[in-house]
Amino acid sequence: xxxxxxxxxxxxxxxxxxNLDINPSDTNDIIGEYARADEQQTNDAIQAAKAARNVWRxxxxxxxxxxxxNIGSEILARKTELATLLAREEGKTLPxxxxxxxxxxxIFKFFSGEAVRLTGDxxxxxxxxxxxxxxxxxxxxxxxxxPWNFPIAIPAWxxxxxxxFGNTVVLKSADLVPASAWALAEIISRAGLPxxxxxxxxxxGSKVGDTIVNSPDIDAVTFTGxxxxxxxxxxxxxxxxAKVQLEMGGKNPLVVLDDADxxxxxxxxxxxxxxxxxxxxxxxxxxxxxEGIHDAFVAGVIERLQGLRTGHALDSKSQIxxxxxxxxxxxxxxxxxxxxxxxxxxxxxxxxxxxDTPGYYLSPALFTETDNDMRLNREEVFGPVATVxxxxxxxxxxxxxxxxxxxxxxxxxxxxxESSKDFKRNSEAGMVMVNLPTAGIDYHVPFGGRKNSSYGSxxxxxxAREFFTIVKTCYIG
Length: 477
What we know:
By secondary structure, this protein is α/β, with parallel strands linked by helices. It has 15 helices and 23 strands. Strand 2 and strand 3 (about 10-15) form a beta hairpin. It starts with a strand and ends with a strand. GO terms for molecular function: oxidoreductase activity, acting on the aldehyde or oxo group of donors, NAD or NADP as acceptor.
């Protein structure tokens, strides 16, 4: 089995440490061997990006645009191949994996356009005879630390704007799922960037991640992962005066009111809570339901869950794939036990499943009779586990929805225009969905939350320029 190497300064570089990428749908299936970088190789990548900073910055915007567009085109042309790889290593069903790959391709194409759309301002000075130019410049060397749950889309939505606005990149992919990021890096390596403008260093957070975070030559760090790690990164990076952007998950509420269309609410809840095996930071893990519709809603969700099949990610009959790793499966099971100990009622699922191949199969778990003070409703599980919280009315439902240290996304199911307008205004989340799953954000709109879910500028869309550029004001006499 050939070793898949790190990409540093335009070359593929070996390492003494090797990571085996294992298929969570079939633990006998080894996807590949991937080199783990050490601290020195990570520093080499950082220095290469630093040396290439001005070279890439000065490439004309038209050439940058063409390069990014070509990357996006190759991703889209190879979507079946890349989606199959992604499904094998992360455990998403093939349709979900295909959607993620398409999203990655479209992100590069979107930022191909943004590269030539970067604007500034010319203002009149308050002093006669002077003009003021306001321009945006690249930040410099960007450290990208990506998570395991979206192994090609999240690297894409960090790398593409970084390159579009003239920065150089050092990518640390998630150690659990190196294959998709490596495939993306291989495409980028042939796209025509100068050596050092893009670098891939795979490996552990303690070696690769910490080296990136602590390096004085990294001008900005963009991170997606847990809030515990993210807040530690914030202190280190901001403490030395560099820019930092964090996306750290959520405990997202979906409010269901008595006047909701029942089928719409059930579809939104099941999709938002359990598809993607619940391994989405936007998953609706708290289902807050008013009393009049509560019992019918719970019965309807259970009926839907009974009709879903959890199985091999590449099996066309599967609607839900396996949990992505043994460690995450153990976490899910621990939270299911915690929920029972806290007095919540396990109304459905939460059981290990046997399939034709050995894998991390868990039936989606639905808890009822929970309250918002339970750990199950305070902490992010990051698995196919959702709770139902009973609310007396809309006012109590809104209060419960906002009673969390997170604030990434929220949703409401209602036929009342008044309630939906009030929820949009008063929900303490960065993104709000009405009669839709809480998960599912287009590639061209800003992504991010409030409270402990996010820190720094928004990701995606035209708002990405706020993080990846620095504003310069110039007076001309």
